């Protein structure tokens, strides 16, 4: 049983001053001048902007070197170079997914993220070692961080014999989602690769989140095959396509029919809004009714020296990549790491309403757009009804 909590005098994004009553980890009431029992824990919001807890839609907690020594990146330019380099480094260095994932997960919490989807490498050399480490982190933080784990075959489904069997074991061991990677360019056989993916997901009744880096026409071909399987197997609303670079490289006459099918089949898209490659078109996705949400991808690892566990920063980068300048447009960027991300990942009971899980962030900002642009220190972070961070610092015991 959690202690009841009252956050007094906070300000909703529309400017309304409210109190928020939290009971048993849920928002019990929200409105001005709430009357509550005397034994409630009280926090004064002092008019700070009240936001829902942030959602990280795509990261790789198991790979990170957050808080560790700097990794000198001298890897080659190809995707396969990065895959092999990472596998070699992790084996030789003894990189521990449990320690690494816990450090980064706590940093996410400190910055206001209360829901998170992480992809975890399932590897024929390491077996389920990385997943076991991340599941320890999920268990350690289970009361405050709602974490989904994706069993991710970083080398593809078919390229390394035994991967499908390991993925089967990973789903039995507690992974929430089945991952996949570039069926044409990595596996070399998109039909067989997708068949294996959907067969495994169907047997375990698990959703799918597939990395699709394949460019232009190749990516479009794979995407059509994938959508055919979603429709045939009734997996509407249970598939996410991460990256989907191809959709940013196609002409509208080729792209728009794919967007129409994505919307019809309720297949969501994830973007990290990278500056260096094409990205799915945000405006066209909104117009067509396609769910497009945001995430960081890897943070400070052998692939990438960049990144931060701050979803307001990711919203800012989404705003910059899509040239979002107006306040209402920046609110869309924030939605990509809040409401839309929760919907895309299937996180339930999300938001600032009665009955929602009490995941709240208070910041000194005038508007949502101001929060995205300025990325102020988090004055207060509440996760599942529990105060986990104050003034940018985790509270003791988290």
TrEMBL record:
Identify the keywords attached in UniProt to this record, alphabetized.
Hydrolase
Please give the SUPFAM superfamilies that the UniProt record associates with this protein.
Composite domain of metallo-dependent hydrolases, Metallo-dependent hydrolases
Q: List the protein's name.
A: Cytosine deaminase
Citing just one GO molecular function, the answer is: cytosine deaminase activity
- Entry's CDD domains? Bact_CD
InterPro entries recorded for this chain? Answer: Amidohydro_3 (IPR013108), Metal-dep_hydrolase_composite (IPR011059), Metal_Hydrolase (IPR032466), Metallo-hydrolase_Enzymes (IPR052349)
The enzyme class is hydrolase
């Amino acid at each position: 049983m959690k202690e009841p909590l009252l956050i007094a005098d906070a300000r909703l994004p529309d400017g309304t001053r409210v109190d928020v009553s939290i009971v048993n980890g849920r928002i019990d009431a929200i409105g001005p001048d709430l009357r509550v029992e005397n034994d409630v824990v009280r926090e004064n919001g002092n008019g700070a902007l009240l936001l829902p807890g942030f959602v990280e839609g795509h990261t790789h907690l198991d790979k990170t070197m957050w808080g560790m020594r700097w990794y000198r990146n001298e890897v080659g330019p190809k995707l396969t170079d990065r895959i092999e380099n990472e596998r070699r480094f992790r084996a030789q260095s003894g990189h521990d997914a449990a320690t690494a994932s816990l450090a980064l997960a706590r940093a996410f919490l400190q910055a206001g993220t209360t829901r998170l989807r992480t992809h975890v490498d399932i590897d024929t050399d390491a077996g389920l070692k990385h997943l076991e480490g991340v599941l320890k982190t999920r268990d350690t933080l289970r009361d405050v961080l709602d974490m989904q784990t994706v069993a991710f075959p970083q080398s593809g489904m078919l390229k390394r014999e035994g991967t499908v069997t390991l993925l089967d074991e990973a789903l039995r061991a507690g992974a929430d989602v089945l991952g996949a990677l570039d069926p044409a360019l990595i596996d070399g056989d998109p039909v067989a690769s997708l068949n294996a993916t959907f067969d495994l997901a169907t047997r375990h009744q698990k959703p799918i989140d597939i990395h699709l880096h394949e460019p232009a026409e190749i990516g479009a071909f794979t995407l059509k095959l994938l959508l055919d399987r979603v429709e045939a197997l009734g997996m509407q609303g249970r598939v996410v396509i991460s990256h989907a670079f191809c959709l940013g490289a196609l002409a509208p006459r080729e792209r728009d029919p794919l967007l129409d099918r994505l919307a019809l089949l309720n297949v969501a898209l994830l973007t990290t809004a990278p500056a260096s490659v094409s990205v799915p078109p945000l405006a066209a996705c909104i117009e067509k009714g396609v769910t497009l949400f945001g995430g960081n991808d890897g943070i400070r690892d052998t692939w990438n020296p960049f990144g931060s566990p701050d979803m307001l920063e990711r919203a800012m980068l989404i705003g910059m990549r899509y040239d979002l300048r107006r306040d209402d447009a920046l609110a869309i960027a924030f939605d990509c790491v809040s409401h839309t991300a929760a919907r895309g990942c299937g996180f339930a009971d999300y938001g600032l309403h009665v009955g929602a899980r009490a995941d709240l962030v208070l910041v000194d900002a005038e508007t949502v757009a101001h929060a995205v642009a300025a990325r102020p220190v988090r004055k207060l972070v509440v996760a599942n009804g529990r105060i986990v961070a104050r003034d940018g610092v985790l509270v003791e015991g988290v």
